[in-house]
Specification:
- Belongs to the ABC-3 integral membrane protein family.
- This is Metal ABC transporter permease.
- The protein is an all-alpha fold and 318 residues long.
- The protein contains 14 helices and no strands.
- It has helices at residues 2-7, 9-31, 35-56, 61-86, 90-112, 121-126, 146-150, 154-172, 174-182, 184-189, 194-235, 239-268, 276-294, 299-308.
- Helix 2 crosses helix 11 (194-235).
- It is globular and about 60 Å long.
Length: 318
C-alpha cells in the first residue's frame, strides 16, 4: 500500500484529472463543431508556455498560463485571418497555424534554454507522469496528514483546481452554453453573447492544456479533448447525458490507461515499461472503437432497432 501511495497515486490521479478536465471541455468544442480547434490550441500554447518561462525565468504557473492564453488567442485570430484572406477551409487554416506555432515552440525551447529545466521535446510530447512521486507517504494515514499532503505533487493539485473551475463554469453557465452551442442566433436575439462564451471556453481550454502539459504531454491532451466527447456522442444525443458519458469515458481513459501501462509489461513478458500517456491514448482509441460498434449508429444499435420494430401480421382475406 505504501509503495502504491508513493509511486502510483499521484501520477494516476494527475492523469485522470487531466482527462476529466480536457474531456468535459471537449464536449463544448464537439457540439460547436470545433474539435480541431482543441487540437490547434494544444499545439499553439507551447510557444506561449516557453515565452512565459523565458520572460519570468521560472516555472511559476501565472506567467506560463498568461503566455499560453495569449498564444491561444493569437492562434485563433490568425486562423480567422488565414481563412478570410487565403479562402481556405477551416481544417486547412487550423493545420497551417497550429503546426507553425508548435514548431515555433520547439525552436524557442532550444533558444531559451528551457530544456535545462525539464521543458524539452519528450516532456512536451509525453509529459512526466513518472516523475510525480509522493515520497512523504508512509501509509493510508498520510491521506489525512496535512504535513504529508503538503508534499503531494503540485501538478495534481493544479489539475484538481482546474477541474473544479471547469465544473463551476458548467454549473453556472449550463443553459447559456447549451443555447450558444445549438442556436447562437437565438442566443444573440435574447441578449446573450455567444462570441463571449466562445472566448471563455477558449480561455478554459488554454488553462486546461497548460495544466495538463506538465503531467501528460500534448499527445494525451489532444486525445482527451476529442476522444471522450466523441465516445459520448456515439452513445447519446442528450445534452446532459453527453457530459456524463464523456466524464465516464475520461475516467476510464485515465485510470484504466494508467493501469494498462503498469500491468501490460508483466502480462506480455516485456523487459521494459510502457509510456503511460501513450497507453491512455490507446485506451481511448479502443473505447472509441467499442462505441462505434455498440453505439446507436453502430451494428449493435441498428440490430436492436430492427428487433424492436413491431411486425404486423397480414390481414386475413375476407
Amino acid at each position: 500500500m505504501t509503495e502504491f501511495l508513493q509511486l502510483d497515486l499521484a501520477p494516476m490521479l494527475a492523469a485522470t484529472l487531466a482527462c476529466l478536465a480536457c474531456g468535459l471541455l471537449g464536449n463544448l468544442l464537439l457540439l460547436t463543431r470545433q474539435s480541431l480547434l482543441g487540437d490547434a490550441i494544444s499545439h499553439a500554447v507551447l510557444p506561449g508556455i516557453v515565452a512565459g518561462f523565458w520572460v519570468s525565468g521560472t516555472r511559476a504557473a501565472a506567467p506560463m498560463v498568461a503566455g499560453a492564453m495569449a498564444a491561444a488567442v493569437g492562434a485563433t485570430l490568425l486562423i480567422a485571418l488565414v481563412r478570410s484572406r487565403a479562402r481556405l477551409e477551416p481544417g486547412a487554416a487550423m493545420g497551417v497555424v497550429f503546426s507553425g506555432f508548435f514548431a515555433l515552440g520547439l525552436v524557442l525551447i532550444e533558444v531559451s534554454g528551457a530544456h535545462a529545466v525539464d521543458l524539452d521535446v519528450d516532456c512536451v510530447l509525453y509529459g512526466q507522469l513518472e516523475a510525480l512521486i509522493w515520497p512523504a507517504a508512509t501509509g493510508p494515514g498520510s491521506l489525512l496528514d496535512p504535513v504529508a499532503l503538503a508534499e503531494f505533487p503540485a501538478e495534481a493539485k493544479t489539475l484538481a483546481l482546474v477541474l473544479l473551475l471547469i465544473l463551476g463554469l458548467l454549473a453556472l453557465l449550463w443553459k447559456e452554453l447549451r443555447l450558444a452551442a445549438f442556436d447562437p442566433d437565438f442566443a444573440r436575439s435574447i441578449g446573450f453573447a455567444p462570441r463571449a462564451l466562445s472566448l471563455l471556453v477558449l480561455v478554459m481550454v488554454s488553462v486546461a492544456c497548460v495544466a495538463a502539459f506538465w503531467a501528460v504531454g500534448s499527445i494525451l491532451v489532444i486525445a482527451a479533448l476529442v476522444a471522450p466527447a466523441a465516445i459520448a456522442r456515439l452513445l447519446t444525443d442528450a445534452y446532459a447525458r453527453q457530459f456524463l458519458l464523456s466524464g465516464a469515458a475520461a475516467l476510464a481513459m485515465g485510470a484504466g490507461g494508467y493501469w494498462a501501462a503498469a500491468l501490460a509489461p508483466r502480462v506480455l513478458g516485456l523487459d521494459h515499461g510502457l509510456n503511460a500517456a501513450g497507453m491512455m491514448a490507446v485506451t481511448a482509441g479502443l473505447l472509441l472503437v467499442g462505441a462505434c460498434l455498440l453505439g446507436r449508429r453502430g451494428p449493435a444499435g441498428r440490430a436492436q432497432r430492427r428487433v424492436a420494430i413491431p411486425v404486423r401480421a397480414p390481414a386475413a382475406a375476407e
